[in-house]
Write a structure and sequence with these properties.
Elements lengths: L1 E10 L2 E10 L2 E7 L2 E8 L4 H11 L9 E8 L5 E8 L12 E3 L1 H13 L2 H6 L3 E6 L4 E7 L2 H14 L8 E4 L5 H10 L3 E4 L5 H9 L3 E7 L2 E6 L4 E3 L1
Parallel strand pairs: 3-6, 7-14, 10-11, 11-12
Antiparallel strand pairs: 1-2, 3-4, 5-6, 8-9, 8-10, 12-13
Helix pairs in contact: 1-4, 5-6
Length: 234
Amino acid sequence: MIKFVKILRLNNGRKEELEDKIVKERNVNLYLNDKLIERIVYSPPFEEELVFGYLFLKDHINRKNDLKRIVFKDEDKGHCTDCHTEVENISNNSLLEKQFSINSSKLFVLMKELLSKSIVFKQTGGTHVSGLSDGQKLISFFEDVSRQSTIFKLAGDAILTDKLSEAIILFTSGRISETAVQYAKRLGVMAVVSRSAPTDFAIETAKDANIMLIGFLRGNRFNIYSTNKNLKII
Protein backbone atom coordinates (compact mmCIF):
# COMPACT_ATOMS: atom_id res chain seq x y z
CA MET A 1 0.00 0.00 0.00
CA ILE A 2 3.04 2.30 0.24
CA LYS A 3 5.12 3.84 -2.53
CA PHE A 4 8.30 5.88 -2.27
CA VAL A 5 8.57 9.11 -4.29
CA LYS A 6 11.16 11.86 -4.53
CA ILE A 7 9.97 15.25 -3.29
CA LEU A 8 11.28 18.76 -2.73
CA ARG A 9 10.58 20.03 0.78
CA LEU A 10 10.68 23.69 1.76
CA ASN A 11 11.31 24.21 5.46
CA ASN A 12 11.88 27.74 6.82
CA GLY A 13 13.00 28.84 3.38
CA ARG A 14 15.43 25.96 2.97
CA LYS A 15 15.02 23.46 0.10
CA GLU A 16 15.69 19.79 0.65
CA GLU A 17 15.41 16.83 -1.74
CA LEU A 18 14.29 13.64 -0.04
CA GLU A 19 12.19 10.49 -0.38
CA ASP A 20 8.65 10.42 0.98
CA LYS A 21 6.09 7.65 1.58
CA ILE A 22 2.71 7.93 -0.12
CA VAL A 23 -0.27 5.57 -0.23
CA LYS A 24 -0.98 3.63 -3.43
CA GLU A 25 -4.26 4.36 -5.23
CA ARG A 26 -5.66 1.91 -7.75
CA ASN A 27 -8.90 1.41 -9.70
CA VAL A 28 -10.88 -1.69 -10.55
CA ASN A 29 -13.48 -1.81 -13.31
CA LEU A 30 -16.19 -4.14 -12.02
CA TYR A 31 -18.21 -6.06 -14.59
CA LEU A 32 -21.35 -7.93 -13.54
CA ASN A 33 -22.58 -10.51 -16.06
CA ASP A 34 -20.37 -8.79 -18.70
CA LYS A 35 -21.79 -5.31 -17.98
CA LEU A 36 -19.60 -2.58 -16.47
CA ILE A 37 -21.34 -1.45 -13.29
CA GLU A 38 -18.70 0.46 -11.32
CA ARG A 39 -15.15 1.81 -11.22
CA ILE A 40 -13.97 1.43 -7.63
CA VAL A 41 -11.09 3.40 -6.11
CA TYR A 42 -9.09 1.41 -3.58
CA SER A 43 -5.68 0.51 -2.18
CA PRO A 44 -4.30 -2.99 -2.77
CA PRO A 45 -4.47 -5.74 -1.63
CA PHE A 46 -7.71 -7.61 -0.65
CA GLU A 47 -9.35 -7.24 -4.07
CA GLU A 48 -11.55 -10.31 -3.56
CA GLU A 49 -12.98 -8.90 -0.32
CA LEU A 50 -13.50 -5.56 -2.07
CA VAL A 51 -15.55 -7.11 -4.88
CA PHE A 52 -17.62 -9.41 -2.66
CA GLY A 53 -18.33 -6.53 -0.29
CA TYR A 54 -19.36 -4.16 -3.06
CA LEU A 55 -21.72 -6.70 -4.60
CA PHE A 56 -23.27 -7.44 -1.19
CA LEU A 57 -23.69 -3.83 -0.11
CA LYS A 58 -25.21 -2.92 -3.48
CA ASP A 59 -27.74 -5.79 -3.19
CA HIS A 60 -26.34 -7.89 -6.06
CA ILE A 61 -25.62 -10.86 -3.75
CA ASN A 62 -26.62 -12.02 -0.28
CA ARG A 63 -24.03 -14.73 0.35
CA LYS A 64 -20.77 -15.91 -1.14
CA ASN A 65 -22.40 -18.76 -3.09
CA ASP A 66 -24.49 -16.23 -5.03
CA LEU A 67 -21.31 -15.30 -6.90
CA LYS A 68 -20.67 -17.99 -9.52
CA ARG A 69 -17.40 -16.67 -10.95
CA ILE A 70 -14.86 -13.94 -10.36
CA VAL A 71 -11.99 -13.19 -12.76
CA PHE A 72 -9.37 -10.45 -12.35
CA LYS A 73 -7.57 -9.14 -15.43
CA ASP A 74 -4.72 -6.74 -14.74
CA GLU A 75 -4.46 -4.68 -17.91
CA ASP A 76 -2.13 -2.10 -16.29
CA LYS A 77 -4.10 0.73 -17.89
CA GLY A 78 -3.10 3.44 -15.48
CA HIS A 79 -2.96 0.80 -12.75
CA CYS A 80 -6.52 -0.33 -13.44
CA THR A 81 -7.75 -3.90 -13.04
CA ASP A 82 -10.78 -5.43 -14.77
CA CYS A 83 -12.93 -7.74 -12.64
CA HIS A 84 -15.56 -9.91 -14.31
CA THR A 85 -18.25 -11.53 -12.14
CA GLU A 86 -21.35 -13.66 -12.64
CA VAL A 87 -24.15 -14.07 -10.10
CA GLU A 88 -27.04 -16.45 -9.60
CA ASN A 89 -30.54 -15.23 -8.85
CA ILE A 90 -30.38 -14.05 -5.26
CA SER A 91 -32.80 -14.67 -2.44
CA ASN A 92 -33.74 -12.24 0.31
CA ASN A 93 -31.66 -12.12 3.48
CA SER A 94 -33.77 -11.41 6.58
CA LEU A 95 -31.94 -10.21 9.67
CA LEU A 96 -33.11 -11.27 13.11
CA GLU A 97 -33.56 -8.58 15.73
CA LYS A 98 -30.81 -8.55 18.34
CA GLN A 99 -30.79 -7.27 21.91
CA PHE A 100 -27.48 -5.93 23.13
CA SER A 101 -25.83 -3.63 25.67
CA ILE A 102 -22.28 -2.27 25.79
CA ASN A 103 -20.30 -0.32 28.34
CA SER A 104 -19.35 3.14 27.08
CA SER A 105 -15.74 2.59 28.15
CA LYS A 106 -15.56 -0.35 25.74
CA LEU A 107 -16.25 1.97 22.82
CA PHE A 108 -13.10 3.96 23.61
CA VAL A 109 -11.05 0.78 23.94
CA LEU A 110 -12.25 -0.56 20.58
CA MET A 111 -11.73 2.76 18.79
CA LYS A 112 -8.21 3.04 20.19
CA GLU A 113 -7.47 -0.48 19.01
CA LEU A 114 -8.85 0.27 15.55
CA LEU A 115 -6.77 3.43 15.16
CA SER A 116 -3.68 1.51 16.25
CA LYS A 117 -4.19 -0.67 13.15
CA SER A 118 -3.69 2.36 10.86
CA ILE A 119 -0.12 1.43 9.99
CA VAL A 120 -0.13 3.06 6.56
CA PHE A 121 -1.80 6.25 7.87
CA LYS A 122 0.99 6.70 10.40
CA GLN A 123 3.50 6.63 7.54
CA THR A 124 1.58 8.53 4.86
CA GLY A 125 -1.42 10.33 6.41
CA GLY A 126 -3.41 9.20 3.37
CA THR A 127 -5.75 6.41 4.47
CA HIS A 128 -8.96 5.66 6.34
CA VAL A 129 -9.62 2.68 8.60
CA SER A 130 -12.89 0.92 9.47
CA GLY A 131 -13.69 -2.12 11.57
CA LEU A 132 -16.50 -4.45 12.58
CA SER A 133 -17.00 -5.45 16.20
CA ASP A 134 -19.15 -7.93 18.07
CA GLY A 135 -19.24 -5.45 20.96
CA GLN A 136 -16.35 -7.08 22.78
CA LYS A 137 -13.59 -7.23 20.19
CA LEU A 138 -12.79 -6.24 16.63
CA ILE A 139 -13.67 -9.13 14.35
CA SER A 140 -12.15 -7.47 11.25
CA PHE A 141 -10.58 -4.20 10.10
CA PHE A 142 -9.29 -2.72 6.86
CA GLU A 143 -7.26 0.32 5.91
CA ASP A 144 -7.68 1.92 2.49
CA VAL A 145 -7.26 5.16 0.58
CA SER A 146 -11.05 5.19 0.13
CA ARG A 147 -13.42 5.35 3.09
CA GLN A 148 -16.07 3.44 1.12
CA SER A 149 -13.60 0.74 0.14
CA THR A 150 -12.76 0.05 3.79
CA ILE A 151 -16.42 -0.84 4.28
CA PHE A 152 -16.56 -2.85 1.03
CA LYS A 153 -13.63 -4.92 2.27
CA LEU A 154 -15.21 -5.36 5.71
CA ALA A 155 -18.43 -6.61 4.13
CA GLY A 156 -16.58 -8.91 1.75
CA ASP A 157 -14.51 -10.40 4.55
CA ALA A 158 -17.65 -10.95 6.64
CA ILE A 159 -19.32 -12.72 3.71
CA LEU A 160 -16.31 -14.89 2.89
CA THR A 161 -15.65 -15.91 6.50
CA ASP A 162 -19.29 -16.18 7.63
CA LYS A 163 -18.86 -13.50 10.30
CA LEU A 164 -21.75 -11.28 9.22
CA SER A 165 -24.04 -12.47 12.02
CA GLU A 166 -21.40 -11.48 14.61
CA ALA A 167 -21.24 -7.83 13.55
CA ILE A 168 -22.84 -5.42 16.03
CA ILE A 169 -20.95 -2.16 15.52
CA LEU A 170 -19.30 -0.49 12.53
CA PHE A 171 -16.34 1.67 13.59
CA THR A 172 -14.77 4.20 11.23
CA SER A 173 -12.06 6.83 11.51
CA GLY A 174 -13.67 9.44 9.26
CA ARG A 175 -16.83 11.39 8.62
CA ILE A 176 -20.10 9.42 8.74
CA SER A 177 -21.98 9.91 5.48
CA GLU A 178 -25.48 8.89 4.48
CA THR A 179 -23.94 6.17 2.29
CA ALA A 180 -21.99 4.74 5.24
CA VAL A 181 -25.22 4.45 7.24
CA GLN A 182 -26.95 2.75 4.31
CA TYR A 183 -24.11 0.24 4.19
CA ALA A 184 -24.42 -0.25 7.95
CA LYS A 185 -28.10 -1.03 7.52
CA ARG A 186 -27.30 -3.59 4.85
CA LEU A 187 -24.67 -5.15 7.14
CA GLY A 188 -27.29 -5.45 9.87
CA VAL A 189 -25.21 -3.65 12.53
CA MET A 190 -26.86 -1.81 15.39
CA ALA A 191 -24.51 1.16 15.61
CA VAL A 192 -22.04 3.27 13.63
CA VAL A 193 -19.25 4.86 15.68
CA SER A 194 -16.72 7.43 14.49
CA ARG A 195 -14.14 9.78 15.96
CA SER A 196 -15.39 12.37 13.46
CA ALA A 197 -18.69 14.04 12.55
CA PRO A 198 -21.85 12.74 10.86
CA THR A 199 -23.77 14.58 8.15
CA ASP A 200 -27.40 15.60 8.53
CA PHE A 201 -28.50 13.00 5.98
CA ALA A 202 -26.54 10.35 7.88
CA ILE A 203 -28.44 11.21 11.07
CA GLU A 204 -31.83 11.13 9.34
CA THR A 205 -31.04 7.82 7.67
CA ALA A 206 -29.83 6.31 10.95
CA LYS A 207 -33.03 7.36 12.73
CA ASP A 208 -35.18 5.82 10.00
CA ALA A 209 -33.11 2.60 10.08
CA ASN A 210 -33.06 2.26 13.91
CA ILE A 211 -29.25 2.56 13.95
CA MET A 212 -27.39 4.20 16.82
CA LEU A 213 -25.11 6.91 15.47
CA ILE A 214 -22.16 8.03 17.61
CA GLY A 215 -19.70 10.71 16.56
CA PHE A 216 -16.71 12.58 17.99
CA LEU A 217 -15.67 9.58 20.08
CA ARG A 218 -12.40 10.95 21.42
CA GLY A 219 -10.83 11.81 24.75
CA ASN A 220 -13.49 10.83 27.26
CA ARG A 221 -16.62 11.97 25.47
CA PHE A 222 -18.86 11.23 22.47
CA ASN A 223 -22.12 12.47 20.93
CA ILE A 224 -25.17 10.27 20.31
CA TYR A 225 -27.10 11.53 17.28
CA SER A 226 -29.48 8.61 16.84
CA THR A 227 -30.53 5.73 19.08
CA ASN A 228 -31.33 2.05 18.58
CA LYS A 229 -34.21 0.57 20.53
CA ASN A 230 -32.37 -2.76 20.89
CA LEU A 231 -28.98 -1.36 21.93
CA LYS A 232 -28.19 0.20 25.30
CA ILE A 233 -25.05 2.14 26.27
CA ILE A 234 -24.34 1.56 29.97
